[in-house]
């Protein structure tokens, strides 16, 4: 796939992580990349530019990923509220992943990030656009109901779209792809 026409905003307060993500995205052929070192900077950038995809850290200061995604998904933030968001985080507890899903994240990628895992998340996000619904004043992705019925326990399971989920803890399948 040609990534040159996809505009991507990377939001992370860790300069090393930004450099790593930039290198990977550039290697994928991306030519429309902007970087923000805080959620506040990302919001400023988006006043004049709307990315096709946002890749953000979950744990940042002073505004974290939770607050950032919540603002992004606000019904008052139209049309940016529908921008796909991939979270990259070192914190992989199931409760954190479910929290990210509930606030409106499309994908959750656990650090350390490999080029292959990032590429797969981006491709999956592009190839499987979500429907959104309004919940408590913000838009959240509607997950495939067939995925809701899966129980995964420390094994790889292929969904109907042949994408592999890999989860260490037993959880209900919920449409988020885990690393």
UniProtKB/TrEMBL annotation:
<dbReference type="InterPro" id="IPR052048">
    <property type="entry name" value="ST_Response_Regulator"/>
</dbReference>
<dbReference type="Pfam" id="PF00072">
    <property type="entry name" value="Response_reg"/>
</dbReference>
<feature type="domain" description="Response regulatory">
    <location>
        <begin position="7"/>
        <end position="126"/>
    </location>
</feature>
<feature type="modified residue" description="4-aspartylphosphate">
    <location>
        <position position="57"/>
    </location>
</feature>
<dbReference type="InterPro" id="IPR001789">
    <property type="entry name" value="Sig_transdc_resp-reg_receiver"/>
</dbReference>
<dbReference type="InterPro" id="IPR011006">
    <property type="entry name" value="CheY-like_superfamily"/>
</dbReference>
<keyword id="KW-0597">Phosphoprotein</keyword>
<protein>
    <submittedName>
        <fullName>Response regulator</fullName>
    </submittedName>
</protein>
<dbReference type="GO" id="GO:0000160">
    <property type="term" value="P:phosphorelay signal transduction system"/>
</dbReference>
């Amino acid at each position: 796939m040609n990534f040159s026409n996809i505009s991507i905003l990377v939001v992370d307060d860790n300069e090393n992580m930004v450099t790593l993500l930039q290198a990977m995205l550039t290697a994928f052929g991306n030519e429309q990349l902007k970087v923000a070192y805080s959620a506040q900077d990302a919001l400023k950038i988006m006043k004049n530019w709307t990315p096709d995809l946002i890749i953000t850290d979950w744990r940042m200061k002073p505004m974290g990923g939770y607050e950032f995604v919540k603002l992004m998904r606000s019904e008052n933030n139209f049309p940016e509220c529908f921008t796909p968001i991939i979270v990259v985080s070192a914190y992989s507890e199931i409760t954190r992943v479910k929290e990210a899903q509930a606030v409106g994240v499309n994908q959750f990628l656990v650090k350390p990030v490999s080029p292959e895992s990032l590429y797969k998340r981006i491709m999956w996000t592009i190839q499987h656009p979500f429907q959104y619904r309004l919940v408590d004043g913000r838009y959240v992705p509607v997950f495939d109901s067939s995925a809701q019925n899966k129980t995964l326990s420390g094994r790889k399971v292929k969904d109907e779209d042949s994408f592999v989920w890999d989860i260490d803890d037993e959880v209900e399948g919920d449409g988020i792809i885990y690393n």
